[in-house]
Specification:
This protein is 39% helix and 22% strand. With 140 residues, it is α/β, with parallel strands linked by helices. Strands 3-2-1-4-5-6 form a six-stranded parallel β-sheet, sandwiched between helices. Helix 1 runs parallel beside helix 2 and helix 3 crosses helix 4.
Amino acid sequence: SSAIPRLAVVTAGAMGATVAKRLTSFGCTVYTNLNGRSEATRNRAQDAGMIDLSFDELVLKSDWILSILPPRGAVSFAEKIQEAAAKHGSALPSPQTFADCNAVNPETVKRIAALFAGTSVEFVDGPGIIGLPKTMKMRP
């Protein structure tokens, strides 16, 4: 399909917002959930053109869900997405893809992939994002 995908980028931290800004610059719609997030994160999300939705709305509207967060939260975030997807079932976009873009070890990737096995959500072991976003400067 030539339709521009609707994506969720979680979270709207420095890296997630940088990726989201690039996606929105190409005309993509990018959702996030800012519940409990700081004013700085809210400002980054707004600057990146991200749309704040409830977690359930984010899952229901996204063709792609990109997990971009500290690696320690990768499994619990994937579990949360899998639970929401199971709750909403046939109301989800088809196809819907969950991409883990975290720098996690192969065993963690297998654990996350297993969460989506046999579900309507496709799993992609995305590129592990490491380092600093292009917009960040290292201090001397």
